[in-house]
Design a protein that fits this description.
5-stranded antiparallel β-sheet; 10% helix
Length: 144
């Protein structure tokens, strides 16, 4: 009976403790592999630096990641960075200041990569290509 209680405890503890976290791609070319070793074949080649990925599992020097399109596979830790970035999952408006009453600077399309410098409350200060300003947090997938 004691073994059952201990197993039950660890099972629910593992459900409550979500170890998932965001990182971003360190280089312009990163290989997503089918397994946690260089011996496994390449599934996808990412060609976007700072693309955010969600880390789901660990295996020695590899991390199992998932991207914003639900592709998953393994990437070596040398190819991952803690740089804050996000992807817009719906169209956003870029503002000069963190309020809807400030001057709108641009429309940010769905799928646009955002480099995030800081966040406060419901807003993040971002940079994307030629524009920088503030966007609302909702509708951004990544490390905020």
């Amino acid at each position: 009976m004691l073994k059952f209680i201990i197993a039950f405890y660890f099972f629910f503890l593992s459900l409550l403790a979500s170890d998932d976290y965001f990182l971003s791609l360190r280089n312009d070319k990163v290989n997503l592999r089918l397994g946690p070793s260089f011996d496994y074949p390449i599934k996808i080649i990412y060609k976007k630096r700072y693309l955010p990925v969600l880390v789901k599992e660990k295996s020695e020097n590899f991390r199992k990641v998932q991207d914003h399109e639900n592709n998953s596979g393994w990437i070596h830790i040398s190819q991952l960075s803690k740089k804050k970035s996000g992807i817009t999952i719906r169209e956003k408006v870029l503002y000069k200041r963190p309020t809807v009453f400030s001057k709108p600077l641009a429309n940010v399309e769905t799928g646009r990569l955002l480099i995030i410098s800081k966040c406060k409350e419901n807003w993040c200060k971002i940079k994307t290509e030629n524009y920088s300003g503030w966007v609302k947090k909702d509708g951004i997938w990544g490390r905020l």
